[in-house]
């Protein structure tokens, strides 16, 4: 399989201190990779670096190649066409994931239209509307026609997150980056969204970079996982091996904590 | 379970109109009607000496006459027109310049943003009066245009500072990052997301600025830096009435009432708009 994303010796630092130090990894086309680590370990910064969206107060070195294009050192203007076609993202906070003043359908339509323009086609109003409905159906939103007309504050957090996933899918990206997309949701909704993410990514043959601090969650969606701590990559490997026979004490700790949590759940009435 | 739709079926319930919006709208509307009427009809021709000097209100001269025996009601009606024209012009100019600079600053790199922010602070501290004098001095005399220019530029700094803060907050939202990632370039982000989201707050600010602009216009005219005669600005009427304020107080009271009613109307209107645009009010039903 061809390499979709390759990160080599990525370093991110502010004037004051290093935030991410020398991490390297790669994601093959269609591969689902988890990025796990405690809060503040630099997971989101790594994702933003891949997207070329780090604040300009940070200095980035190393190399990132996304779909054959260099990201570090590229001008923002050169990244615009790369984004959307190659990569899309879903974020943690469903409340700010959607524009509060636009109907859900219009927000998805905007992405559909832009993606079509990029492909050199200009679909009509009806064509766009039907594609939007299909996308909302794809992410299993109930009554898609009504949700399309709703504003973000009129639907639930889980539904908003599904809407955000629909927008990401509308890009038809080769890589989907999901930064803790289920952290703000309750357990039932979390499981549904994870299932949805895994299915759509598998069906569309997209690569996935799934960020979380929750080990069982990563184990659900990813085939391979990277473990980060204090801005460095400390371990990586297939999910089974990593969580079955962790070699780094920190990963061991994570696994033990998850087991203890599971056990506690089983004893719960 | 949180996936059950909570969207309310059917149309959104009608919101009751907040009273400040209604009262403010009525006052401003009254001035607007008078201003429009003054284009086609005034009780007397504007410069004509049609009565005795400094008469009080009567059936023939509703607001009395000035020291040359000219009808005050006629001049106050024309004053409404000048106040509205200068107010509109200044707010429009201030909005155009202010929103443009504010949005640019929000997008600018750190250094440029710092420079712009400092420049705005200086411009805000710069007295409108001094600005007006400079503009009048560098053109051929005071006119409606110099007043609009001075008040508009002064207001634009405040609009720019507000726009910059509002836009920065919107730009930090995840949906902006998502839009960027999906390949929307900055102009698209401004048009699709930033402007619509900051607009409600800006509109309220424009209504407030309108009130300030009307006061500023009266002040400039009072000092002789406004529209020259025969443009009967309220500020100039006040200035002319000042000499005889003890013997004929109504000459000052009448234009004063006109000024106060328009400014109060605009402020109430702004308050009402703020209330009507408040998302918590709109959403919590
Ligand atoms: N704009 C910024 N300027 C300076 N430091 C920052 C900035 N954003 C993040 N950091 C720092 O970089 C470090 C890594 O942040 P990051 O957001 O990548 O953490 P994370 O692994 O995503 O954590 P979480 O699980 O809480 O989201 C943190 O120590 C944070 O304080
Ligand atoms: Mg994070």
UniProtKB/TrEMBL annotation, chain A:
Compartments where located: Cell inner membrane
Membrane topology, from the record: Peripheral membrane protein
Keyword Transport assigned: yes
One Pfam family here: ABC_tran
Keywords, ordered alphabetically: ATP-binding, Cell membrane, Membrane, Nucleotide-binding, Transport
One example GO MF annotation: ATP binding
Main localization (coarse): membrane
Domain ABC transporter, chain residue ranges per copy: 5-255
Superkingdom, taxonomy of origin: Bacteria
Similarity section: Belongs to the ABC transporter superfamily.
Name of the molecule in the record: ABC transporter ATP-binding protein
Biological source species: Shinella lacus
Automatic annotation (TrEMBL), chain B:
Subcellular location, principal: membrane
Membrane topology designation: Multi-pass membrane protein
UniProt-recorded name of the protein: ABC transporter permease
Family: Belongs to the binding-protein-dependent transport system permease family.
Entry's localization field: Cell membrane
Transmembrane intervals: 21-41, 82-108, 115-136, 142-163, 202-225, 245-269
Domain of life: Bacteria
Keywords, comma-separated and alphabetical: Cell membrane, Membrane, Transmembrane, Transmembrane helix, Transport
Annotated ABC transmembrane type-1 domain residues: 80-270
InterPro entries in alphabetical order: BP-dependent_transpt_permease (IPR050366), MetI-like (IPR000515), MetI-like_sf (IPR035906)
Organism per entry: Shinella lacus
A Pfam family matched in the record: BPD_transp_1
PROSITE patterns from the UniProt entry: ABC_TM1
């Amino acid at each position: 399989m061809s390499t979709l994303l390759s990160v080599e010796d990525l370093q991110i630092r502010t004037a004051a201190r290093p935030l991410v130090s020398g991490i390297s990894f790669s994601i093959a086309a269609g591969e689902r990779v988890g990025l796990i680590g405690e809060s503040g370990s630099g997971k989101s910064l790594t994702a933003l670096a891949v997207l070329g969206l780090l604040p300009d107060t940070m200095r980035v070195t190393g190399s990132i190649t996304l779909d054959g294009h260099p990201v570090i050192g590229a001008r923002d203007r050169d990244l615009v066409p790369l984004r959307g076609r190659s990569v899309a993202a879903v974020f943690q906070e469903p409340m700010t994931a959607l524009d509060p003043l636009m109907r859900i359908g219009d927000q998805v339509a905007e992405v559909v239209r832009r993606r079509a323009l990029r492909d050199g086609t200009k679909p009509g109003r009806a064509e766009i509307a039907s594609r939007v409905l299909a996308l909302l159906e794809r992410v299993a939103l109930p009554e898609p026609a009504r949700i399309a007309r709703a504003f973000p504050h009129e639907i639930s957090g889980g539904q908003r997150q599904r809407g955000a996933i629909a927008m990401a899918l509308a890009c038809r990206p080769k890589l989907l980056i999901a930064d803790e997309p289920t952290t703000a949701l309750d357990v039932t909704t979390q499981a549904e969204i994870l299932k949805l993410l895994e299915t759509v990514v598998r069906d569309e043959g997209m690569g996935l970079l799934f960020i979380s601090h929750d080990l069982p969650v990563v184990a659900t969606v990813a085939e391979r996982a990277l473990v980060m701590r204090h801005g460095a990559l400390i371990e990586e490997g297939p999910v089974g091996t990593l969580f079955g026979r962790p070699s780094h004490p920190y990963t061991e700790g994570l696994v033990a904590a998850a087991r203890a949590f599971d056990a506690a759940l089983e004893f719960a009435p | 379970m949180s996936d059950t739709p909570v969207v309310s079926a059917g149309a959104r319930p009608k919101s009751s109109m907040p009273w400040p919006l209604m009262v403010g709208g009525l006052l401003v509307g009254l001035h607007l009607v008078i201003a429009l009427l003054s284009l086609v009809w005034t009780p007397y021709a504007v410069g004509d000496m049609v009565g005795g000097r400094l008469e009080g209100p009567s059936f023939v001269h509703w607001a009395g006459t000035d020291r040359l025996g000219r009808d005050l009601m006629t001049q106050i009606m024309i004053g409404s027109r000048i106040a509205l024209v200068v107010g509109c012009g200044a707010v429009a100019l201030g909005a155009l310049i202010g929103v443009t600079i504010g949005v640019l600053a929000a997008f600018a790199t750190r250094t440029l943003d710092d420079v712009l922010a400092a420049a705005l602070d200086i411009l805000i501290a710069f007295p409108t009066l001094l600005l007006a004098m400079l503009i009048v001095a560098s053109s051929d005399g005071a006119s409606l245009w110099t007043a609009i220019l001075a008040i508009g530029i002064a207001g634009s700094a405040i609009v720019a500072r507000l726009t910059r803060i509002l836009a920065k907050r919107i730009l930090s939202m995840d949906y902006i990052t998502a839009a960027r990632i999906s390949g929307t370039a900055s102009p698209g982000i401004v048009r699709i997301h930033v402007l619509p989201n900051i607009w409600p707050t800006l509109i309220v600010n424009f209504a407030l600025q309108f009130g300030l602009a009307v006061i500023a216009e009266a002040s400039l005219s009072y000092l002789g830096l406004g529209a020259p005669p025969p443009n009967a600005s309220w500020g100039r009427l006040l200035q002319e009435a000042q000499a005889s304020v003890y013997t004929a107080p109504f000459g000052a009271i009448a234009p004063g009432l006109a000024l106060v009613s328009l400014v109060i109307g605009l402020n109430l209107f702004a308050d009402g708009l703020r209330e009507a645009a408040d998302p918590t009010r709109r959403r919590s039903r």
